[in-house]
TrEMBL record:
InterPro entries: DUF7343, DUF7345. Residues 352-366 have a biased composition (Acidic residues). The keyword Membrane applies. This is HTH iclR-type domain-containing protein.
Amino acid sequence: MRMSTAATLALAALLATTTMGAVAATPSASAPATIERPAPGPSSLSTAPAQSQSVSASSTAPPPLDRPDTWQVIRIRITDTGNAEWTVESRFRVTDDDDAETFDEYADSVVSGQRDAGYDPQLFERYAALASESTGRNMSIENAAWDDPRIETVETDADRSVDEEPYRVGIISYSFTWTNFATVDGERIHVGDALQTSDGTLFRTLSSGQRLVIEPPSNYGFVDAPTSTENGALVWDGPHEFGENGLQISILEGAGGPFFLPGAGWLIASVLALVILLGGIAYLLTRRDIDVGVPIPSDRLSVLENATLPGRSNSPGDGHGTATADGNGGSDAVSTAESPASDDLGPGTSLEFEESVDDEIDPELLSDEERVHRLLKRNGGRMKQASIVSETGWSNAKVSQLLSKMDDDDEIEKLRIGRENLITLPGVDPTEVE
């Protein structure tokens, strides 16, 4: 038995409006739920846009608070048993102490049941039952409850300027566990069929300001991720329209590590690592030649294979002195290199390496922290945060989170100058003019 069209539309409306709607009656084809689109402004922040006769106007009055750019986050964390831990967050901008007090009062009334915000566990139980019939797996909704309201400081947001000041948001969230949401096949977990119906996926669109996040279990990663990832999770930001095939996601155990490469990627990575290792050894040996101060004349390159390493002396009388072009045991070679005649050698008569070994390393093989250090060193030890975003191609959110962590670990220093963040290496004077 597949999910009915009316049930699909009801759940889609529930997830696609400002927040989860208050639905008291079972949806049917003859009496579909009425969706009220809130107008912009403070009055649009109702947590119950889907009205029903059982919900009074006073119980669904919107709070007098603005909403941030991302005002709803639907977070689905998949477990290694195939269950899904859902959390639906409604967010409100908190600009001062008065807003914080207003949010606390509103959130307490929602959590205590004085205000009906539409998070009805029985509603999700009905959809889990329909999905169970459709997939043939036993499903249920467990541990459905309100979380403690909280106010957090938002340092990053994909829709905001990287240099914009952080702000606070009040968060009301409702959580539950959907059992057997995904299928487990050995080391793989498949996600998507529980959201698929005969009329398409339950997630059809995301409105502007909505965000869908799907997180894998620990030590798991996504195979052929259908969208961008942040901190190992799939992230969709609205406005977004999903395809007709819905969400078909594969999660593989062990794929969550930073060095996971599918298929032939391991062979390519091994070859690259070997090339880099050999290049590094050759570079160090050449640097040793340069540090000793003995240039290698071009007319002696043909006999290098019979020579020992410079700077290594053999014990007297062992009969194995350093081999040179004239066979005199190496003493003449050193004296010749130190003679004034060596100053007259033209270009190409000695081996010189000026290129840094770091330039030969593929940036994809470096950690995020190493790439930031590399950029800073190339730019005199300091860069604007916006320039790092441009150079790396990472999102504003990822760069801000990474730099905050590196600042906490004393790997870099962040200085706020006007509306911009200046990033410097430790010990670099940010006021110094180049």
